[in-house]
């Protein structure tokens, strides 16, 4: 009897293993059957992601880019076949021309389990996305940006003072990444919540503690975030969260505390995101059965993603730009001369929004930094209906990733792409995507809505720092990227020697 049961169990196990093997073999042959070039043989369970948490996405995508020069190639994220696009022409179709076939992102968004993660403007799906995009756009008009630039300049002045007291006076090299996190945190605190307490000046602010929590990339937090973006089926099973529980609770508390304070005092701030979101809530056209929770969560989700996006990407770009300037003294001095010339022509102590836009070399330095170090290397879209381009057919449900790093490192467009050369962008503007060869903010209807805000934030800090200080390297030129972070960020401190200009 026991032998018969044992044999039956072994038979069942053998059948299951055989079925699993055949399923895997069939699944991992998806791209070959369609004549699409495919990355090296996928690994069981992981597909082409066995490097996770050991190597950064920046490094992995860089290796794929050097190896696969086709317009597109196939990969497997877990068992899911994914298409990676190297061609700027095909990218133009996915992002703009055929947007109807690629309206949503592929990343996991569990509305019931993670409303802040699923309802923010980055993740939320159509039709809610379309309405939210329209309603939030007034936050970033030129008039508002000019006002934000004044605030950013005030915070940049505090940044300059902090560098003087902590590093110049003590004759120590500086890790700009932490200082830039403080600077962007102070700016976002006011932009979102109307809070004028500065961590650069006072040493603490209501937003600083949650900033540190949101941007702390541990092994497990990095794995959770990576699976949300690239293996959403696993993220759904384990109910992973876009924002940590601590970050979610803190944002909720801070948001409602600000709302209650305004009700109590009767004071409002017409320029911050809280005020805009409250007006948005009053005019939202949602299904009657959705209740107030959906409207509240929509507001909170926008505040949370604005904090994450505005602080991390701007601070990282500033860090890489200072790093490159420290290793390129001629370019550094050219930038110093251009900013100084603009100051002299304006007759002001600090350049305003319009003045900063006129400094072409400042824009060129920032754009070249974003080309070489794009914060997001792969832009995800989910194909929602069959799409055809030349000999390629993309089935509905297939994730498509625009290889931003591959496009930015195309030697035909950017000769010697590993070199940092601001002159590549000497005549570019913030609206110039170089015919879809420059995509650090994405493009099309779902491009980063905070692009001009981020660029202004970077310009203000860089312009003030370059006129006050000279930079020299105190760390190797090649920057090792953090394998735990989906967004590009340095693994180690990038120390810079800094000297006051006479």
TrEMBL record:
<keyword id="KW-0812">Transmembrane</keyword>
<keyword id="KW-0349">Heme</keyword>
<feature type="transmembrane region" description="Helical">
    <location>
        <begin position="219"/>
        <end position="238"/>
    </location>
</feature>
<keyword id="KW-0472">Membrane</keyword>
<keyword id="KW-0479">Metal-binding</keyword>
<dbReference type="InterPro" id="IPR002401">
    <property type="entry name" value="Cyt_P450_E_grp-I"/>
</dbReference>
<dbReference type="GO" id="GO:0005789">
    <property type="term" value="C:endoplasmic reticulum membrane"/>
</dbReference>
<comment type="similarity">
    <text>Belongs to the cytochrome P450 family.</text>
</comment>
<feature type="binding site" description="axial binding residue">
    <location>
        <position position="448"/>
    </location>
    <ligand>
        <name>heme</name>
    </ligand>
</feature>
<keyword id="KW-1133">Transmembrane helix</keyword>
<dbReference type="Pfam" id="PF00067">
    <property type="entry name" value="p450"/>
</dbReference>
<keyword id="KW-0492">Microsome</keyword>
<dbReference type="GO" id="GO:0020037">
    <property type="term" value="F:heme binding"/>
</dbReference>
<feature type="transmembrane region" description="Helical">
    <location>
        <begin position="6"/>
        <end position="24"/>
    </location>
</feature>
<keyword id="KW-0560">Oxidoreductase</keyword>
<dbReference type="GO" id="GO:0016712">
    <property type="term" value="F:oxidoreductase activity, acting on paired donors, with incorporation or reduction of molecular oxygen, reduced flavin or flavoprotein as one donor, and incorporation of one atom of oxygen"/>
</dbReference>
<keyword id="KW-0503">Monooxygenase</keyword>
<dbReference type="InterPro" id="IPR001128">
    <property type="entry name" value="Cyt_P450"/>
</dbReference>
<dbReference type="InterPro" id="IPR036396">
    <property type="entry name" value="Cyt_P450_sf"/>
</dbReference>
<keyword id="KW-0408">Iron</keyword>
<dbReference type="GO" id="GO:0005506">
    <property type="term" value="F:iron ion binding"/>
</dbReference>
<dbReference type="InterPro" id="IPR050476">
    <property type="entry name" value="Insect_CytP450_Detox"/>
</dbReference>
<keyword id="KW-0256">Endoplasmic reticulum</keyword>
<protein>
    <recommendedName>
        <fullName>unspecific monooxygenase</fullName>
        <ecNumber>1.14.14.1</ecNumber>
    </recommendedName>
</protein>
<dbReference type="InterPro" id="IPR017972">
    <property type="entry name" value="Cyt_P450_CS"/>
</dbReference>
